[in-house]
């Protein structure tokens, strides 16, 4: 297929995601408002009001109900969507696990935000990473265009018969949700072709099934193993979908990870989310000063790109992982993932915990840590707090 | 790349002002970023919106610390904060004021309140100053913002009569900006 | 097509979970001379194991009847006796 030139629009992140959702044509939505996601919900109801999106928007009384509502709806066949953040995602947790375990294809956007207490409305990744064990594919956007792109790909990945799994699209609260950027949107007809009609449907009166029944220990373990295998299979499906998306849009998609200025880098920076952009700037500036540094961006958090990460770590003199979420009593969440896949390698892996609760991180903070790494002055774990 | 900081009070349309500039720049084929800072917003409380405009893709997502241009929507902000914090030495200041005074090496002024009042852009007793200010900013940012494109964006943002009035405010702001010597 | 073996669903079918009649200690026996065909036992059976014959008399499916005795309790003419399975 030829590269499809779409319209160029100026959109804030929440509106870009709403636009992608509209193009994916879900029939049932259930969303409960929460900062910094609310303006996405408002845009979606505006689309429905104007007749641009033919969907039922269920007014629910909580995030738990929002996920429960689209869970039930999804079983009957329609494409469904929800969005939330922070406390809302936590409140949704029980249903998040139900949906993952039941292997229901659906898409949820998470406008990442810190978790109370203390109360905060600003960005970090603590909410997003807390859902890492729920049998969900989790992808993280770097900018507003990326949030639009990932949302479209999420529907396709989720509904792929080889995957059949919910997909969570994470994008940094305020930093992306409320920031207006240039976004190239695809023509509706191209999206129609990119996301084939949904086949998943369990509720069928001619062929009744029981859903939510108790599983004996033997059966339970069997389904968990199948989910593990499906999650591994998802890696190649995600790459396939990204390759197809790249072909259509002409926008480079890279895959589960992206290695930026990595080839000859002695030192590697690892991160995910919106601050990867700032990291690119930091790495470029250090390169100008002759420092051999590179950047590994984690684009897909679940399934975790184990092979790619391990390969990227090999032969480096030092690695620093920037973490926007922390497992208290253990370490930075992303750092732990990276370290787990460095087993047997001698590369020292450092952690910088930063950007918690919206604390702004400047390229010079990133540069500083990276420069200290190259000079052997970086602690094993540094907090920018 | 150029970085702006827009300072005003809750209800003055500071965020919309940033978005209008960015949308206009993007419609010209450039890149832009409007970064509102949200906190405990209340009508009248000081609020900030930051803008990046560029001819190349923008990778940064951090806030703007050393703006090239600061726009002050309400001169009374000087008594509660320093709106010019971090402004580059060779940066520019645009003030909404009827009483021109030099606050930086390069200071510009426009009476956005009067422009809004003359057109009738007054809501709940508040003069809607943001579109006149955006017009004035466009004059200082000719490299990135085209007046015609901006007026189009304003008409798209505010449909009907309101769009016409705001587009006029943009135009008057553009022409009404003066350098303070 | 969805591969149903991939996801946790149950296919309801008679006897798919074994014959619950093996749990029975007391067997309900209907005395048709006393039965008035009122159908209360059919409505009350918690396991849906009592069905109607074409002549409208109730009939118990002993493969699945667990012997709970609800039918005997609700029968207005005391037409159902609970008889020990093991003599």
TrEMBL record, chain A:
Residues 20-242 form the Pyruvate flavodoxin/ferredoxin oxidoreductase pyrimidine binding domain. Its EC number is 1.2.7.11. Residues 265-366 form the Pyruvate:ferredoxin oxidoreductase core domain. It is an enzyme of class 1 (oxidoreductase). Keywords: Oxidoreductase, Pyruvate. One of its GO terms (biological process) is response to oxidative stress. InterPro entries: PFOR_II (IPR033412), Pyruvate:ferred/Flavod_OxRd (IPR050722), Pyrv_Fd/Flavodoxin_OxRdtase_N (IPR002880), THDP-binding (IPR029061), Transketo_C/PFOR_II (IPR009014). It catalyses: a 2-oxocarboxylate + 2 oxidized [2Fe-2S]-[ferredoxin] + CoA = an acyl-CoA + 2 reduced [2Fe-2S]-[ferredoxin] + CO2 + H(+). Signal peptide: none annotated. Heterodimer composed of an alpha and a beta subunit. Heterotetramer of one alpha, one beta, one delta and one gamma chain. PANTHER family: PYRUVATE-FLAVODOXIN OXIDOREDUCTASE-RELATED. Catalyzes the coenzyme A-dependent oxidative decarboxylation of different 2-oxoacids such as 2-oxoglutarate, pyruvate and 2-oxobutyrate to form their CoA derivatives. This is 2-oxoacid oxidoreductase (ferredoxin). It comes from Candidatus Aramenus sulfurataquae. The lineage of its organism: Archaea, Thermoproteota, Thermoprotei, Sulfolobales, Sulfolobaceae.
UniProtKB/TrEMBL annotation, chain B:
Keywords: Oxidoreductase, Pyruvate. The keyword NAD does not apply. InterPro entries: Oxidoreductase_gamma_subunit, PorC_KorC, Pyrv/ketoisovalerate_OxRed_cat, Pyrv_flavodox_OxRed_cen. Its EC number is 1.2.7.1. The keyword Oxidoreductase applies. It is an enzyme of class 1 (oxidoreductase). It catalyses: 2 oxidized [2Fe-2S]-[ferredoxin] + pyruvate + CoA = 2 reduced [2Fe-2S]-[ferredoxin] + acetyl-CoA + CO2 + H(+). It holds the Pfam family POR. It comes from the Archaea. Residues 10-174 form the Pyruvate/ketoisovalerate oxidoreductase catalytic domain. GO terms for molecular function: pyruvate synthase activity. This is pyruvate synthase. It comes from Candidatus Aramenus sulfurataquae.
Automatic annotation (TrEMBL), chain C:
SUPFAM superfamilies: 4Fe-4S ferredoxins. Keywords: 4Fe-4S, Electron transport, Iron, Iron-sulfur, Metal-binding, Pyruvate, Repeat, Transport. Its cofactor is [4Fe-4S] cluster. Residues 26-55, 56-85 form the 4Fe-4S ferredoxin-type domain. InterPro entries: 4Fe4S_Fe-S-bd, 4Fe4S_Fe_S_CS, PorD_KorD. Pfam families: Fer4_21. GO terms for molecular function: 4 iron, 4 sulfur cluster binding; metal ion binding; oxidoreductase activity, acting on the aldehyde or oxo group of donors, iron-sulfur protein as acceptor. This is 4Fe-4S binding protein. It comes from Candidatus Aramenus sulfurataquae.
């Amino acid at each position: 297929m030829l590269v499809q030139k779409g319209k160029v629009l100026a959109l804030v992140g929440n509106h870009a995601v709403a636009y992608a959702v509209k193009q994916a044509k879900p029939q049932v939505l259930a969303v409960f408002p929460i900062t910094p996601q609310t303006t996405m919900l408002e845009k979606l109801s505006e689309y429905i009001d104007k007749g641009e999106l033919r969907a039922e928007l269920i007014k629910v009384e909580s995030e738990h109900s929002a996920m429960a509502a689209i869970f039930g709806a999804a079983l009957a066949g329609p494409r469904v969507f929800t969005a939330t953040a922070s406390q809302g995602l936590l409140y949704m947790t029980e249903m998040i696990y139900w949906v993952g375990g039941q292997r229901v294809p659906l898409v949820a956007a998470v406008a990442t935000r810190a978790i109370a207490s203390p109360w905060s409305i600003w960005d970090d990744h603590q909410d997003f990473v807390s859902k890492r064990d729920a049998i969900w594919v989790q992808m993280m956007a770097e900018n507003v265009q990326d949030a639009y792109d990932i949302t479209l790909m999420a529907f396709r990945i989720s509904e792929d018969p080889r995957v059949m799994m919910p997909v969570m699209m994470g994008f940094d609260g305020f930093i992306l949700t409320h920031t207006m950027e240039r976004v190239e949107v695809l023509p509706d007809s191209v999206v129609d072709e990119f996301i084939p009609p949904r086949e998943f449907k369990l509720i069928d009166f001619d062929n009744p099934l029981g859903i939510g029944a108790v599983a004996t220990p033997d059966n339970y373990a069997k389904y968990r193993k199948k989910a593990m295998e499906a999650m591994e299979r998802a890696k190649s499906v995600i790459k396939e979908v990204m390759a197809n998306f790249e072909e259509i849009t002409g926008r480079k998609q890279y895959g589960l990870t992206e290695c930026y200025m990595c080839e000859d880098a002695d030192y590697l920076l690892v991160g995910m989310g919106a601050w990867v952009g700032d990291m690119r700037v930091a790495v470029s500036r250090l390169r100008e000063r002759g420092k051999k540094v590179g950047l590994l961006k984690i684009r897909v958090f679940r399934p975790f790109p184990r092979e790619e990460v391990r390969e990227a770590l090999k032969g480096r003199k030092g690695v620093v992982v920037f973490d926007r979420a922390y497992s208290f009593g253990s370490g930075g969440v992303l750092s732990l993932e990276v370290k787990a896949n460095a087993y047997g390698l001698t590369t020292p892996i450092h952690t910088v915990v930063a950007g918690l609760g919206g604390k702004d991180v400047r390229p010079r903070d990133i540069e500083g840590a990276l420069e200290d790494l190259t000079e052997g002055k970086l602690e094993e774990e540094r907090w920018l707090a | 790349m150029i970085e702006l900081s827009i300072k005003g009070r809750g209800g003055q349309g500071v965020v919309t002002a940033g978005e209008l500039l960015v949308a206009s720049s993007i419609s010209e084929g450039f890149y832009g970023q409007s970064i509102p800072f949200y906190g405990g917003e209340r009508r009248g409380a000081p609020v900030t919106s930051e803008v990046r405009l560029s001819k190349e893709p923008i990778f940064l997502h951090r806030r703007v610390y050393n703006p090239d241009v600061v726009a002050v929507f309400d001169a009374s902000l000087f008594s509660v904060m320093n709106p010019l914090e971090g402004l580059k030495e060779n940066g520019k200041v645009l003030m909404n004021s009827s009483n021109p005074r030099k606050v930086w090496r390069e200071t510009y002024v426009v009476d956005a309140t009067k422009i809004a009042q003359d057109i009738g852009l007054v809501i709940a007793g508040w003069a809607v100053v943001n579109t006149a200010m955006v017009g004035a900013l466009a004059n200082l940012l000719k490299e990135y913002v085209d007046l015609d494109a901006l007026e189009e964006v304003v008409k798209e943002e505010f449909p009907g009569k309101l769009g016409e009035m705001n587009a006029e405010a943009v135009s008057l702001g553009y022409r009404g900006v003066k350098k303070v010597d | 097509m969805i591969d149903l073996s991939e996801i946790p669903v149950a296919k309801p079918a008679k006897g798919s979970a074994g014959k619950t009649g093996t749990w029975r200690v007391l067997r309900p026996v209907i005395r048709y001379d006393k039965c008035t065909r009122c159908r209360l036992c059919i409505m009350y059976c918690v396991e849906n194991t009592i069905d109607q014959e074409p002549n409208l008399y109730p009939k118990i499916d002993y493969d699945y009847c667990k012997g709970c005795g609800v039918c005997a309790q609700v029968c207005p003419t005391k037409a159902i006796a609970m008889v020990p399975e093991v003599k």
